[in-house]
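$ ./design --mode recover --in tokens.txt
reading tokens...
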């Protein structure tokens, strides 16, 4: 039990103390037997040489070191009085804690040697590095030599802690700045190259977009001017083609100019109360009339009544018209375009959906970038400037709304415009 453990601890402590006392007694007896004559000889020698006797010194006898401290007033005539110091206690109880505490976090090793070079104490088994400092106890008592060794350091560490470290830091800072600048430069150059490629594609595409309707307009106008078209029915059909191609040119020019004004901050929107229900009806009918002869059918679904929105009616018409034109162009073999509108909460949503070629997942977000027209052959074979969707996004953003797209290759795309509604109609 606890009492037995306590008794065992007390007995063990007693045995340790008894062993220590026995060692001290044996050391005193050894000193008396072997070092007495050496002590007398040393005192006499010092007295004859200098008339002065050291009070503390070490004696070596029988392979042992004895630390002697003489009291004042002791002499050979009157008798020697002094103390035999415990070297083990001085070494382990005083010197060792001082060295371990003072050099606990240092990069310095140490070793304590006796007069004969033997190791008395050591911080490590084998100190590494060169000796940078030797120290002895004041007065040479006890006669121990303490060696301090600087541990080997890497060249990089030595450079960092040396007086030249400021140059290293400056070099590293310059290297970081240059590296950061290089990354920015590469990114900027890459962006500019991509933009240059897109602009080149845009110029090529727009040139074709202008040239095709202009060629049609010129040929038909020349035929009508020279009177080569005799049939009234054919003349009316050609007039319709002229109007259609002129509208196509006008739409292209409007998109380019409006996008430039918006990006430069010069586009002015005339915000007023807009009835999107009426606007969508008119746009759907006009689109159906324009593309109906090609077999297209514009299906419209409006959940009345739609709340009013505050915006620029012409800009919103242009955005929806671009989405309808985009849906028609990318319908492929499908000949159906769906136009839906409904209100939910404080948002009015307009969706333009086709059942055409669709957009690859990795190109969905890029579809709204300037000049971007897709990487596949189908997309590049379809006419267009690559500005329509960009203009849609800018117009919707200017109205405080959002536009997104969901698409699946081979099944079509759905573009969704969400605009904030007017909670209180503005009649001002």
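writing sequence...
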């Amino acid at each position: 039990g606890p009492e037995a453990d306590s008794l065992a601890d007390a007995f063990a402590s007693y045995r340790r103390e008894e062993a220590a006392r026995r060692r001290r007694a044996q050391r005193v007896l050894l000193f008396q037997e072997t070092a007495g004559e050496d002590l007398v000889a040393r005192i006499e020698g010092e007295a004859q040489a200098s008339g002065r006797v050291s009070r503390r010194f070490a004696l070596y006898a029988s392979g042992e070191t004895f630390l002697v401290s003489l009291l004042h007033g002791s002499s050979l005539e009157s008798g020697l009085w002094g103390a035999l110091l415990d070297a083990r206690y001085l070494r382990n109880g005083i010197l060792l804690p001082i060295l371990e505490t003072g050099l606990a976090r240092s990069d310095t090793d140490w070793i304590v040697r006796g007069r004969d070079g033997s190791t008395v104490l050591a911080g490590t088994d084998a100190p590494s590095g060169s000796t940078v400092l030797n120290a002895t106890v004041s007065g040479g008592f006890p006669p121990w030599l303490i060696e301090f060794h600087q541990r080997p350091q890497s060249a990089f560490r030595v450079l960092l802690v040396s007086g030249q470290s400021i140059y290293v830091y400056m070099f590293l800072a310059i290297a970081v700045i240059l590296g950061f600048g290089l990354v920015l430069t590469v990114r900027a150059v890459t962006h500019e190259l991509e933009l240059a490629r897109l602009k080149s594609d845009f110029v090529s595409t727009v040139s074709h977009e202008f040239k095709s309707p202009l060629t049609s307009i010129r040929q038909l106008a020349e035929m009508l001017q020279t009177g080569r078209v005799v049939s009234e029915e054919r003349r009316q059909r050609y007039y319709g083609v002229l109007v259609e191609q002129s509208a196509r040119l006008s739409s292209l020019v409007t998109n380019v100019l409006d996008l430039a004004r918006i990006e430069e901050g010069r586009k002015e929107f005339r915000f007023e109360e807009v009835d999107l229900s009426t606007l969508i009806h008119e746009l759907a009918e006009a689109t159906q009339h324009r593309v109906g002869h090609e077999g297209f059918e514009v299906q419209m679904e409006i959940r009345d009544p739609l709340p009013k929105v505050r915006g620029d009616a012409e800009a919103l018409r242009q955005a929806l018209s671009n989405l309808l034109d985009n849906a028609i162009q990318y319908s492929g073999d499908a000949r159906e375009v769906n136009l839906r509108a409904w209100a939910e909460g404080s948002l009015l949503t307009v969706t333009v959906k086709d059942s055409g070629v669709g957009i690859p997942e990795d190109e969905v977000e890029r579809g709204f970038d300037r000049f971007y027209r897709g990487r596949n052959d189908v997309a590049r074979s379809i006419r267009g400037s690559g500005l329509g969707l960009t203009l849609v996004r800018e117009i919707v953003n200017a109205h405080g709304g959002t536009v997104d797209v969901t698409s699946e290759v081979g099944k079509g795309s759905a573009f969704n415009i969400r605009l904030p509604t007017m909670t209180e109609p503005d009649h001002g």
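exit 0
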